[in-house]
Amino acid sequence: MPDSVELVQWEKSQLGLLKRKGGLVLKKWLIVWLSVFCSVALPGLAGASGPLSPYMISEIKLFSLQDRQVVAIALDDQIPGKGIDEVLGYRLKPSFDEQRQADRLTVTLSNVSLSVKELPPEFPLQLESLEAGRLKISLKGLAASRAEVSTVHRKTVKARDGMIRLRTYLVFNIPNGLKKNQPTVVLDPGHGGKDSGAVQNFIHEKDLNLDISLRAARLFAGKGWNVVLTRRTDVETTLLERADAANIVNATVFISVHHNSLPEETMHRSREFGTTVLYNSSAAKPAYDLARIMQDELIGSLGTQREVMQDRPKLVVLNSTWVPAVLTEGVMMPNPANAKLILDRFQRHRSAEAIVRATETWYGRKVLAAKKPAKPRSQPAIRLTVNAPSVGNQAGNSANRGIVAESAGWIYYLRKADSVSGNKEQTLWRFYPDRFMSDQLVADQEAWDINVTAEGVYYSNWSDRQTLYLVAPDGSNARKMTDGPVQQLGFSADRVVFVRNRNIYTMPRSGGMALQLNEDVAENTVIRDGWIYYANGSDGFRPYRVRVDGTGRSKIAEDETLFLTVAGEWLLYSNLSDGEKLYRIKTDGSGRSKISEDRVGYLNFDQKFIYFTHTDQKNALFRILPDGVGKTKVMEGGTVAGPIGVVNGKLYYQGLFQELK
Ligand SMILES: [Zn+2]
Questions:
Q1: pTM
Q2: What is the CATH number that goes with domain 56-175?
Q3: Which of 20, 225, 468, 513 is deepest in the core (most CB within 10 A)?
Q4: Cα 197 to ligand 1 centre (Å)
């Protein structure tokens, strides 16, 4: 519930919707209406009155976790749905009387009807029905002193019969005092019982989902997580029940495990695709980050194709969970290769491991992010600033081989060869982040560098001798801008800046004569604020800078650079003169110092961190703060180092996009 929302409450009797025979009218229960959803009074509700029905307690759930027991008493009610559109705005909000003594906790509910007479012995609390529809719930001993009472609502729904069903759990959270702060995962094996899920290639999806979930459950438990499974056997359970489990235990994360199928008519397409993870960007706690990591891990383990990630606000398990939730679609079952693969127990185990690994990575980052810096620094931390070039790409991407660029929310990138690209390497694509939309092809030629301005997308066309092309964002109106080759493509005001035959050239953005700037052999060009920075091959690859008009050429440092980029007033570089270690120096040549002892290949930065590929760790991707602290591994290494692109808070490395936090 948003904090700022003003609550408008009606007592139930004012609704006058439920006619009762007898029974005591107790106005302790409220139906809560959120004004944010609806700003006018609902017609036909006020004025009428009548005795109230008792609220039903139809079930009581117990969750036994490693560090606590959680008991949830389900309170149900329903109202006619006629004239009510904003169903989600209604909640049952029980008020209850809570009494605490040293060794005893008593909670009294009123106006309830309980069908359960006695609880099984494993339940840590006692029930006692009092007169006039009251129910006394009590806990004794240590449990009583530790227990916390709260309410957790289920998403309100309109049923087929036109009634609006409301459910709220009265939740007793009872720590056992043994362990603390254990994260909790709710694993949800999709389908079950009569609902087999997808049935393809003689495999029932429900069985795969259960097998992988049980494996993941064991792995999570072994790593000290509380684990809840929404089913442990081949039984059917409703979608809301699954979400309830996560909400009641206030899980750290909810993971629904599925495998994909597609309707018959799209089957041919399904053969091309593999693994995806679904998330809900409008959820109470969206889990896009987790979904992304999860997809990377699953693909890394299974070697399946990358399917577009899906934002699915209408999926029940993703829109009725109040905790971060994702749904994995491990393999595409109609695909025979995928089907064969997942029949292998070893691969199912790998899937489970991938799920656990992704969750731990995500959780680790969350915990890390939640921790505040221990004490104020004696020196102010260096802040990297993106001095955005007046036009064109951001964040040193011209040095990073022009692999990715952003414009009007779209991200343009060079795609690695895959079946979707027709196995062409480096074709130009774009996508709109966080939308369920297939990536779009912009140019079917193999591109070398890309960059974007208001005129459109520029790319050096590898398929046409690296000459420069300009194309509209949607791929139309491609036109050739140069006759000669173009690399290291950047912009400054009205000029295009590029490298040709190892020298720097500039030319007007509208096209025309290209002029050679000087005689230096230039690598890693970065254009910032009217300056071009580069590793000067004519002088031992020391870092230099020169203005776009050719004036002011000067050496910045005596070090031989392997790779460089520029962040605000800082030049960042891997220093070949000192074992490829990471250095910084101000662009005026002052303040040189070592940032890290690691061997660094490619590098880039966002406004806070420097990202680099680690030469001694199979080119794993790391990040570090510019003053040399806070080093963490962002992505495991493969073997191939790739340039690092940073656009709009997203990082692009080895063909994978990743959110920056
Ligand atoms: Zn499924």
A1: 0.54
A2: 2.60.40
A3: 468
A4: 5
